[in-house]
Specification:
This protein is of the alpha+beta class. The protein has 6 helices and 5 strands; from the N terminus they run ααααβαββαββ. The strands form 2 sheets. A 3-stranded mixed beta sheet has the order 2-4-5, with helices on one face. A two-stranded antiparallel sheet has the order 1-3. The longest helix has 33 residues, at 42-74. It is globular, with a radius of gyration of 18 Å. The protein starts with a helix and ends in an 8-residue tail after the last strand.
């Protein structure tokens, strides 16, 4: 039914998907702010972790649905070419963000992490994630990108190289 509704009115379906994405990101952003705050009660911190986990799962489901829809409507050979390495894409996106970074940017890739998709679009997506992550970093902290394969997925994890400073 998702494919049928998307094929019948793609602009409407994309608007709904964009709205769902925006809502998930807002909830995830709020939970992240709570987790970054130093003086938060354990019960509130645990609730924020649960919200973040739930939103990440829902974002992953939304991304899977969008990828499946793109594949079914555009044809597999137009959406996917040869597998790309997520670490290589992340490195290209990292290089583009270095002028904006105050701290250090590090990439840690232990193994190839193949992904399918259009290279430029994936690099733009990674660049947007990096810009957002850089804005959230504690002052003077570095951003660490970890890339690994967890079949059937490639995993990209962004984290600070140090915890947020405690406010006195």
């Amino acid at each position: 039914s998702v494919r049928a509704s998307a094929a019948a009115a793609p602009a409407d379906w994309l608007a709904v998907a964009a709205h769902a994405l925006r809502n998930r990101l807002a909830a995830l952003g709020g939970a992240t702010e709570v987790l970054a705050a130093p003086l938060v009660e354990p019960a509130v911190r645990e609730r924020a972790r649960a919200i973040a986990g739930q939103q990440l799962r829902q974002l992953a489901d939304l991304a899977s649905n969008l990828a499946e829809l793109a594949e079914s409507t555009a044809g597999a050979d137009r959406v996917h070419g040869a597998p790309l390495d997520l670490a290589t894409l992340a490195l290209a996106a990292l290089d583009g963000q270095r002028p904006l970074a105050v701290g250090q940017l590090l990439l840690h890739a232990t193994q190839p992490a193949p992904v399918l998709g259009e290279p430029r679009a994936l690099e733009q997506l990674l660049a947007a994630l990096l810009r957002h992550a850089l804005r959230q970093l504690p002052h003077g902290a570095g951003l660490v990108l970890e890339v690994r394969a967890e079949p059937p997925e490639a995993v990209l994890r962004l984290r600070s190289d140090r915890p947020a400073p405690a406010l006195a």
